[in-house]
């Protein structure tokens, strides 16, 4: 039986590229942050609100206070809380309907106990390679790439911590870790396909 793949990844590590490659080679669906946008539209939640409160703000003290204070008042923060659980439900239901690739959104934790998924943390131990990749994919300067890398990793770590109460980089959270500073995307994809049971 082919299993789903759940990915957490450092910004600039190539995790999204690897996820898409696995999806193409295995012939299974691919889901990333666009899934949250889709669910938000279905629930009538403002995309501007989503942009404001998504990975950017979770984990901050002010956000936690605002979320707690407004939970029973039907305000914007409670909608974000509702949205997270709708996305959580969507990921679980999609995984039940058949194997797929899920990137981010705490999917590694959401699918952990299903028995039908493989979880991986994709990182790069070579900062220079990460920065070069970001410069190439985002069309930014070296200085901007470094700032983006630090900011995105902090946001992802805070997001993961906020919703799971776990350390994003803790290897105990995952079935495996792949270092893209030594493994090219194609090799990473092949390792993951084997782990998923793809023939």
Supply the key terms.
199 residues; globular; 9 helices; 5-stranded parallel β-sheet; alpha/beta
Describe the largest sheet.
Answer: 5 strands, parallel
Assign a percent range to the helix content.
55-70%
CATH topology: Rossmann fold
How many separate domains? 1
The unreliable regions are 57-72
* Number of E-state strands: 5
Enumerate the strands of the largest sheet in spatial order, edge to edge or round the barrel.
2-3-1-4-5
Average pLDDT level: 84
Spell the H/E element sequence: EHEHHHHEHEHHEH
Radius of gyration over all CA atoms, rounded: 17 Å
Q: Give the termini distance in whole angstroms.
A: 10 Å
Query: What is the CATH class designation?
Result: Alpha Beta
How much beta, percentage-wise?
5-15%
CATH 2nd-level architecture:
3-Layer(aba) Sandwich
Gross morphology: globular
CATH superfamily: P-loop containing nucleotide triphosphate hydrolases
Description:
With 199 residues, the protein is of the alpha/beta class. The chain has one domain: P-loop containing nucleotide triphosphate hydrolases (Rossmann fold). It contains nine helices and five strands; from the N terminus they run βαβααααβαβααβα. It has helices spanning 15-26, 34-42, 47-53, 61-70, 76-97, 107-110, 127-138, 142-164, 185-196; strands spanning 4-9, 30-31, 101-103, 117-123, 176-179. The chain has a five-stranded parallel sheet. Residues 57-72 have low confidence and may be disordered.
